[in-house]
Every structure is written in structure tokens, then in C-alpha cells.
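To make this tangible, we now present a fold written out as C-alpha cells:
***
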Amino acid sequence: MQFSIRLIVFLVINFGVLFLGSLSMGEGPISDWYTGLNQAPWTPPGWVFGAAWFSLMFCFSIYMALLWRAPVSKSVKFLFGLSLLLNGSWNYIFFNQHQVLLALINICGLLAVITYLTISQRSKMGLSSLFALPYIFWLLIATSLNSYILLYN
């Protein structure tokens, strides 16, 4: 399969998971529950979240389209599937269910999966591994925000 087709497939999958996650969070960041929380001083304005997720999912889709050349190991398939599950469920756990600790465990798992996937495929991907770094960086920020909310609320 050509790179351009793989890229479209991963864009649809990754943005589809983001869309489903957003449907599951109710009012999310504008809810009374969330706005009433003591949030980290480094919490970015709301519009940054949308821009960040768009940018990093675009980069991560490029990364996956480059990685997903034949043959693809079962471990890569498993890690990608697990990352989708963890990414898609965080919004529901955090915003809908208000389970801040479980959401923190979830996002730490997602960070671990994406980091492990990137490191384990570094020899195959070379400099293309840089396309995964925005996702890892953002997950570090999101984990710190989630942690702050858990500790100070």
C-alpha cells in the first residue's frame, strides 16, 4: 500500500478516535465540574488543546504511515491498538466519570505505550521517529496537568 493511502487511513483512525473521545466527555472542559477544579498554573488556554491535538495527531499519523510498511510485527499492531483504546477512553474517564486517578493511570499507560513504541522502532524509523515526539511531549504535559488536578483537588 502506498504511503499516501496509509497516511489517509491513519488520519481517519487517529482523528476518528479523537472524535469518539470528544463525544464521550459531555461538556468536558466547559463543565462546572472541570472549571471548578484547582488547575495547574501552566494549564494552557482551551484553544491550545484543539490545536495541539490536531498537530500531534497529524504528526503521529505520518509516523504510523511510515512505520506501517510490510511486514508489521504483531507487537506494533498491539501497541497501536492499545494506544487507540487508551487515548479514546481518557476523555470519558476524566471528564464524564470524574475519575481523576483512573484517568492518570490511563494517560501514564498511554505515555508508556507511545514512548515504548517510538523507542522500540527507532532503528527501523531513524529520523522519522521525530514525528512521534510531539505526541510524547504533549502526553508529558497532559500527564502533569492530570497529576496536578489529582494532587490539589
In short: Helices lie at 3-23, 32-35, 46-67, 74-96, 100-120, 122-125, 133-152. The radius of gyration is 16 Å. The chain has seven helices and no strands.
